[in-house]
Amino acid sequence: MLANILHEALGQAATALFTGAESGVLSTVAWSSAQDSRLVAAGGTFANLAAALVFWLVLQSAAHISVRWRFLLLLGLAFNVFDGTGYFLFSGVTNFGDWAAVIAGLPAHRLWRSLLIVAGIASYYAAVVVVVGALVRYAGVPRNSAQRLTRLTVIPYFSAVLLSCAAALLNPLGMTLMWVSALPATAGAHSGLLSMRYYIPKAAMPERPSKAIERGHAWVVTAGVLCLPFIFVLGRGITLRR
Description:
globular; 3-stranded antiparallel beta sheet; mainly alpha; single chain; 3 strands
């Protein structure tokens, strides 16, 4: 939810309103206004990558917080960096989405698409290595604990897919955006969570005690409460004005 809101609301809607747009419609799958520009299209990716950097820095410095909070910071890093780097590859391959809008109309269009693909592959691979290295170092998960690594990555992955699709079903721009935006943005962009246990850096070792992340009912209730406005308010779309 946070990665999505940072992309659509802070990265795109806020950029559009500050650069001349009078109003627009914000939902979980898109920001739409009459004055969208290349900067607005790129703003979502920039917001995600900036947030990923913040999560990474906090995770490195937060030595004394609980393993639950460290895991929350790690998921913030993962979803934001995968959203940011995955969009380069997605737009380069499909010629659709934010970065397709950024390069639209530029000379040597095929070259720009090729550069997006190369940049996407390289940056996404680097993101996978960084995130799985952080999972071992800061969540204290031993590199040979395959079952635990799987649970800590598969559950967030499918939770994100279900949540994103549930909100997208209500978006005001039509069902098509669920298939071409919401689903690729989660099932595709976040797929690094499913395979990253195979890319653990050899130097990655737990730097903090290895403790199981026990279920916290307060966390579950909080997440459930936050899902409601995300799906039924932002999912339906809201109009923002300057």
